[in-house]
Every structure is written in C-alpha cells, then in structure tokens.
Amino acid sequence: DSPTANKDTLKLGLAIAANEGFNLLSGDIKSAFLQGQTLQRLVYVIPPPEANEKDNLWLLEKGAYGLIDGSRLFFLELKKTLENLGMKPLSGDSAFFTCHMDGKLVGFVCIHVDDLLLCGNDEFERIIAGKLMKYFKFSKLEKRKFTYLGCEIEKLASGDISLNQNEYIKKIQGYCTSQKQ
Fold first, then answer.
1. Whose CB among 6, 70, 91, 175 lies 3.0–4.6 Å from 63's, allowing a Cys bridge?
2. Per-residue pLDDT tens for 158-171?
3. How far apart are CA 110 and CA 114, in angstroms?
C-alpha cells in the first residue's frame, strides 16, 4: 500500500499556505521507483533488446513501474527521508508531512506517488526542499505557478492562491445522447 494525500487535506494545506504566506513548489521525482528501497524478494527480468544479453536474466534490485510493491518501496524511502529531516506525518493522512521549527508550522509536503507539493517559508524551502532535491533526482521543479494533479495552482502577488482546472475542462470531450435516453 502506498498512500496518497487526501484531497481535503490538500485543500486545507493550501488554505494554510495562503494564510501563512508560504512559498509554493511542485516537484516530480524522476524514475521514482528506482529511487525507492531495495526489493525484499527475488524478481528476474528479461533484459531489453538493446542490452544484447539474449540468453541472460537480470536480477531486479529496486522496485519498477508495474510491480505491485514498486510505489510502496518508493513511499517508504521518501517517508524515511522526510522523517530524518524532522518532518512528521499528519495524523489521519500518512501522505502529508508537516515541519515545525520552534513550535511553529513552517511548511509541509503533500505526496501523490512521485508528485510532491512543498509549501513553506523561506527557511523550509532552503533547508527541507533543498535537502530533498539533493537526495532525490527531480525531473522538474516549479515555483509559484504550476499544475499539480490536474489542477492549476498559482500564488498571486496578493499572497492568495488561485486554483482552477480550465485546461482540464477544455480537454473534456462532449457527449451527445438522443432524446430517448
């Protein structure tokens, strides 16, 4: 099982981020399953044709897309890393981690498989986000304005946070029915 943050937790987190004036970052971890924990079982794979190893099998060491435990192994590695950075999972949502300094909330990380939403003050961004980016390879990292889980999120100059799904709505195909249906 690999948890993903609850939608209501995400919305509440964004409301807190707006209230606290937090910075917003969205990150996509590159080849996340290969950055997860080591497999605890033996899995052999047929090498790809370009490896020119037709008569061999490879022993898979890390989780891979398509394996039932691939996302779980990645989540466990991410969880361990966040906890080592002093973050704690939210009670009731194990894919939402909070960071407190001197008893005050300074940031949080919202997890959806390999997509992370990081919200926090400048110190949180420098220390926590900076260390995460050194530990994991990110394919992209965006600030202030980005799409996260199909929702366009933007921190406005006023400090408010705007959410919309305009691009998603434009892609929805119309469906016609007869009057009899």
1. 70
2. 999 999 998 888 88
3. 10
Question: Contact, 81 vs 135, CB < 8 A?
Answer: yes
82/109 Cα distance (integer angstroms): 9
Can you tell me the distance from the alpha carbon of 9 to that of 157, in angstroms, rounded to the nearest whole number? 24
Q: Which pLDDT value is given to residue 169? A: 85
Confidence category of residue 181, pLDDT binned at 50, 70, 90: low
Separation of alpha carbons 118 and 81, rounded Å: 14
Determine the 3-state secondary structure of 12 from DSSP: helix
Q: What is the token pair recorded at 116?
A: 């992370």
DSSP letters spanning 23-63: EEEEEEETTGGGGSPBPSS--EEPPPGGG--TT--EE--B-
